[in-house]
Amino acid sequence: QVQLVESGGGLVQAGGSLRLSCAASGGTFSSYAMGWFRQAPGKEREFVAAISWSSGNTYYADSVKGRFTISGDKATNTAYLQMNSLKPEDTAVYYCAARVRAVVYVSTYGRRGAYDYWGQGTQVTVSS
């Protein structure tokens, strides 16, 4: 049973930085892409960032462009999310996700239903 485990969340002041990590365990699989989503209280889970292992391309939500950077290692199905210049509105539970199938349309990276495996989430709280 494949599991994704996030770590690195915590409490930080506005303007600070955090680095989230996501590691796969419990089974073997080859991911085509990995992504990060977040869910704030009372809101739907939303796309944050994704990386395609085949092209190396990265994709970001407009709200985090220029502040967040996704990276990782395809061989180990590990993903990272470096978050800088954090704002109170970045407060949410952050989830890691992995997709094993190839992607044809770029819009696929932003869809929750496009991912095959999910982590349990890690809380990020940004104080003002």
Overview of the molecule:
The protein has 128 residues and is mainly β. Helices cover 0% and strands 48% of the residues. The protein contains no helices and eleven strands. Strands 2, 4, 5, 6, 9, 10 and 11 form a seven-stranded mixed sheet that branches. A four-stranded antiparallel sheet has the order 1-3-8-7, with no helix packed on it. The model has no long low-confidence stretch (mean pLDDT 95).
* Sheet having the most strands: 7 strands, mixed
Mean pLDDT over the full residue set:
95
Topology order in helix (H) and strand (E) letters:
EEEEEEEEEEE
* Uncertain residue ranges: none
Helix content: under 10%
Structural class: mainly beta
Provide a quick synopsis of the model.
With 128 residues, the protein is mainly β.
Keywords:
single chain, seven-stranded mixed β-sheet, globular
Question: What topology emerges from the helices and strands here?
Answer:
Elements: E1 3-7, E2 10-13, E3 18-25, E4 33-39, E5 46-52, E6 58-60, E7 68-73, E8 78-83, E9 92-99, E10 117-118, E11 122-127
Parallel strand pairs: 2-11
Antiparallel strand pairs: 1-3, 3-8, 4-5, 4-9, 5-6, 7-8, 9-10, 9-11
